[in-house]
Design a protein that fits this description.
Elements: E1 11-13, E2 16-18, E3 22-24, H1 39-50, E4 55-62, E5 74-75, H2 81-93, E6 98-104, H3 112-115, E7 120-121, E8 135-136, H4 139-158, E9 163-168, H5 173-178, H6 193-196, H7 198-211, E10 216-222, H8 233-246, E11 251-255, H9 262-265, H10 277-284, E12 291-294, H11 300-308, E13 314-317, H12 319-323, H13 327-332, H14 350-353, H15 370-373, E14 387-391, H16 395-406, E15 410-415, H17 424-427, H18 438-450, E16 453-456, H19 462-468, E17 472-475, E18 479-481, E19 494-496, H20 497-501, E20 510-515, H21 520-531, E21 535-540, H22 555-564, E22 568-570, E23 573-579, E24 585-591, E25 597-603, E26 605-609, E27 612-614, H23 617-622, E28 629-631, H24 641-654
Parallel strand pairs: 3-4, 3-13, 4-5, 4-6, 6-9, 7-8, 9-10, 10-11, 11-12, 12-13, 14-15, 14-17, 15-16, 17-28, 19-26, 20-21, 20-26, 21-22
Antiparallel strand pairs: 1-2, 18-27, 23-24, 24-25
Length: about 650
């Protein structure tokens, strides 16, 4: 049973008792329909309530027509939301879970191309990301937004929510009024802290008047803008004390940074676990209100330590519960080995949301499909039990094996290497990418628990398949580095990324690196080389190195590290030919814009990140000979980890 005495103790937030200290934190889903709450959201939030979270805080909801930073925000100011809210809150409450709604106006971080209205902000300063010059709000505009906050909060209460959280964090009009970085006003709303607090206090006061003294109100506060000229922790501590003294709020939920530094808001695996704990601890020293701590706390052990140390009163888990909705229940019942830990790779969650796609998760294919596929265990056994042979124990094969076995099939998983994991075992050797190995660790134990028979060091052949007589075969043999990506690729002193990371390459000190990947396969390998003291020159046909890393928030820190380690970049070049003798390799290519040809080198060694090709020989040899034959993952087409897991889950679940 659980030894997490603090984590699973109740807490009062205003007049609301929450059964434990785990809060599922607000984040965009893009699940709304016509800017109204949806059934998909109901089941999504309900799944985390069923998994044992004590509190759900919804994604931000828009309080005013000028606030349309994203196309699929809920228009909480509209009376039509109430009926949908009631369905969501009733659904969540059946699991003894509390639910708060977060309401917000994004201010300068809105998008007039969505709303077809001017963007409103304290000052006419374009946001660093949206770059749209806003209208400086007049007094009447501020009063109107306060009135809309009140109206929105009333709809929240009428919809059955237990409380409301007002966004004062990284993306909010309220923070923009508070911060000298974005507020240059010369009237009663700018200048001194007292003046800069005036509009945010108006918003909170309006909400309090609308919902009454018995309804819980909190604020999501940016604990430190982490940029010169912005709010720092000392400033925010002072603001927190003033809000507490106002008597208007019941808790403070902390975030970090702004759109100037989103890599801090949505930290990847390159950010330390629990990296925001000092902010929560700093605020906790100054106020008596309950303080929330959020930021890469994906482990109940860490959460318990934060609470025991008095650094926070509530633990905010976001990506950790997207990845494993049942983390709280598993922790409380002592099943720590069954927790599927988030690795903060950001491909399925932040990476998709940033491109206006619906939320997902590389390790949880059920995200957004909880109505059809929710629940901790499969409840529908296979009607016909089959003998299933799976070739390849990478992520696709492991997931297929686990899901098929859980349905009751007799599953044998073969892997030609001496360990499971496939390409993940190579990827985790790249600089700063070791945490991706958690994907393998998360699933390895589940294979045994599901009853999968695992055969390592065995290459599946057509003869082995014929000998075993399986009812179904799933081929998950993956991909390999592309052959013939460019003329001269097979010459001496030319190696691919796999050979480098596996220690199979004889490397010189001066390395040319051809990057057609734009992702971690290239950048993490180049950094791996630089960490060995190599001089690395990266050439890419893209506009810049790391072109695919922007949506996952890895671009800024990756480029910073590469540059600090002396790696040089040449973009816009299509490499067409590799030449030279061993000891002086050269590359030739042309600028994709000017069409001018150039030559680079000499280098001691060339490293190629120029794509993958399918390893589908087994599949092709079995085609027409096995009736129930499937192929999944990279042996269909080389893609990223999320698609391998998705296809493994799908075929295993449907077999």
């Amino acid at each position: 049973m659980s030894t997490f005495n603090k984590l699973f103790s109740p807490i009062n937030l205003g007049n609301v008792e929450v059964k434990n200290r785990i809060s599922f934190q607000p984040h965009l889903t893009n699940f709304a329909v016509n800017n109204m709450p949806s059934e998909r959201q109901m089941y999504y939030w309900g799944e985390r309530a069923r998994g044992g979270a004590g509190l759900i805080i919804t994604e931000e909801m828009s309080v005013h027509p000028t606030d349309m930073a994203y196309e699929k925000l809920i228009d909480v100011y509209h009376p039509r939301v109430v009926d949908g809210f009631k369905k969501i809150t009733d659904h969540v409450h059946q699991y003894d879970c509390r639910i708060f709604a977060q309401i917000n106006h994004n201010g300068q971080q809105c998008d007039g191309s969505n709303s077809r209205l001017p963007v409103w902000a304290p000052s006419p300063m374009p946001d660093v990301l949206f770059r749209e010059t806003p209208k400086e709000m007049e007094y009447e505009d501020i009063v109107e937004v306060a009135r809309y906050f009140a109206q929105s909060a009333l709809h929240v209460r009428e919809g059955g929510f237990d409380g409301v959280e007002i966004q004062f964090g990284h993306s909010s009009l309220a923070r923009q009024f508070l911060s000298p970085l974005t507020n240059f006003r010369q009237d009663e709303f700018g200048g001194s802290l007292e003046n800069r607090m005036r509009a945010p206090l108006m918003f909170v006061e309006a909400v309090r008047r609308a919902v009454g003294r018995d309804f819980t109100i909190g604020i999501r506060m940016c604990g430190d803008e982490m940029i010169p000229g912005g709010l720092n922790l000392a400033d925010v501590q002072e603001i927190g004390v003033l809000f507490e003294q106002s008597g208007l709020i019941d808790f403070m939920d902390l975030s970090i940074a702004t759109f100037y530094n989103l890599y801090l808001v949505e930290g990847t695996m390159h950010m330390p676990l629990g990296y925001t704990i000092p902010l929560a601890a700093g605020m906790r020293e100054k106020v008596n209100l309950p303080v929330f701590c959020t930021g890469r706390i994906n482990d109940p052990v860490m959460a318990e330590k934060v609470l025991e140390a008095g650094q926070a009163d509530m633990i905010g888990m976001c990506r950790g519960l997207i990845c494993d909705p049942f983390l709280p229940r598993k922790a409380q019942t002592g099943r720590l080995d069954d927790i599927r830990h988030c690795i903060a790779d950001n491909q399925g969650c932040i990476g998709r949301i940033g491109m206006n796609k619906t939320l997902s998760c590389i390790q949880n294919p059920c995200v957004g499909r909880e109505k059809e596929m929710g629940g901790e265990v499969l409840t529908t056994p296979a009607a016909v039990k089959k003998k299933v042979l799976i070739a390849g124990a990478g992520p696709a094969g492991m997931w297929a094996a686990k899901m098929a076995a859980r349905r009751g099939h007799d599953v044998t998983l073969y892997e030609r290497q001496e360990q499971v994991g496939g390409q993940v075992n190579i990827a985790m050797k790249g600089a700063g990418r070791d945490e991706i190995g958690v994907v393998v660790r998360n699933e390895k134990g589940q294979l045994e628990k599901a009853g999968v028979k695992l055969c390592l060091g065995v290459t599946v052949t057509p003869e082995l398949v014929a000998e075993e007589h399986p009812d179904a075969v799933i081929v998950a043999t993956g991909s390999v580095p592309k052959e013939h990506p460019v003329s001269g690729w097979d010459g001496p002193a030319v190696f691919n990324v796999w050979q480098v990371l596996n220690g199979e390459a004889e490397l010189g000190d001066n390395i040319g690196f051809i990057d057609y990947d734009g992702h971690h396969r290239a950048s993490a390998t180049a950094e791996f080389l630089a960490d060995q003291g190599k001089k690395v020159h990266m050439i890419t046909s893209s506009l810049f190195i790391g072109a695919e890393l922007g949506p996952t928030q890895d671009l800024y820190l990756t480029r910073q590290r590469l540059l600090q380690k002396g790696i040089t970049f040449t973009p816009d070049i299509a490499v067409m030919e590799i030449g030279g003798e061993k000891g002086e390799k050269k590359v030739k290519g042309f600028n994709v814009y000017s069409n001018e040809w150039h030559e680079w080198g000499p280098y001691d060694t060339l490293v190629l990140a120029m794509g993958q090709q399918v390893d589908d020989q087994l599949y092709q040899s079995l085609k027409g000979k096995v009736d129930d034959l499937h192929r999944i993952g990279d042996c269909v087409a080389p893609r990223k980890l999320d698609m391998a897991i998705w296809e493994g889950h799908k075929v295993g679940r449907e077999l």
